[in-house]
Amino acid sequence: MTHALTLEHAKEMDKQDALAHFRKEFYIKENHYYMDGNSLGLLSKRAEESLLTSLNDWKEHGIDGWMDGQEPWFYYSEKLGDMTAPLVGAEKEEVIVTGSITTNLHQLLATFYQPQGKRTRILADELTFPSDIYAVQSQLELKGYSPEEHLVQVKSRDGFTLHEEDIIHQMTDEIALILLPSVLYRSGQLLDIKRLTDEAHKRGIVIGFDLAHSIGALPHQLHEDGVDFAVWCNYKYLNSGPGGVGGLFVHNRHRGKKPGLSGWFSSRKDAQFDMDHTLTHADSAGAFQIGTPHILSSAPLLGSLQLFEEAGIENLRRKSLSLTKFMMDVFQQELNGYGFTICNPLEDERRGGHISLQHEEAARICKALKANRVTPDFRAPNVIRLAPVALYSSYEDVWETIYILKSIMEKEEYKQFENTRNVVA
Ligand SMILES: *Cc1c(COP(=O)(O)O)cnc(C)c1O
Questions:
Q1: Whose CA is nearest to atom 14 of ligand 1?
Q2: Which domain of life is it from (predicted)?
């Protein structure tokens, strides 16, 4: 950096930001700095409106809301799937909104994990989110394999990131399926989805990705990259509300594949109410649904996705990279010598939507931030994640966040708190 960054720089960048007007679509508390949109995105007025539409359909139509409401519930999951497809680079029929990350993983592992001969193992990584690993362990056990032996976890060299070569090196002829994150939840490292998919396919291995920390933050090309399957939630960058219904992708090449876990909503829509005991499953990702869709937990997504259509995911990615770069620059200017390590990758091509700071006192620094109107995110044992979100965060928010952090460190204000995590962290 040649000259010092100031609050005026931040304000100037906000003035020039073509996406700045989306901020007023959201409920944002004044003088609060929300940096946790990667755990739970904020409520938008559009999401509120689409939820109220579905409530009103229930009020007005009762049971007939399934077909006759303003947004008929019978086709709601398919409609939301169509609207999500551009965000993951998919054909419409490859995507459905259903379930949660974990239940969708169970569904797709039950479908795609088909051990044969000596190909019996599942390859994941040691930095993956626990729920994903629990799902893999259960699915191995259900097929009669011990997770100790049949779950292979790629090791991290530094405790924060993965080397793609290390992953590829472990793609042996004993691996039946690979499950990886697109962006690692702690360090925010973005993996090369195309490269890993190509390498897996060269070796005859099925590969799926968990997009929890990339959907809504950056564009994807799942169809073109040839990824076999993917899962995600909609409550992080997609702002669909706590516990909002998730989504999944299954490549068209697997069209017609029998779902591992079936239910009446796996059915072809026109045959579902025949009530036949032989299932004719849908010829699309819709086949991977199981039971009745959770309409009131899906409805906010409709309004929220309209905002993504209007803003454009490429534009959002550009702003997100610029926000996180600005955050790192201000951080390096103001917070040198306070014991922090930046553990997210610095390069644009390898960075997701958040920055990740390691510090021995991370738990209580987060508590001090909260007491000072900044909402960060703590991940045990010692990581602070900060996610300035392109749709609603400003450069000024970023500036204030780092400034408040600096003041906490200067005054050692964090020492007023215990260095332990809260029940929900
Ligand atoms: C948020 C998150 C989850 C949560 O799964 P749910 O089933 O939606 O509760 C799982 N995996 C990853 C990688 C996540 O980031």
A1: 212
A2: Bacteria
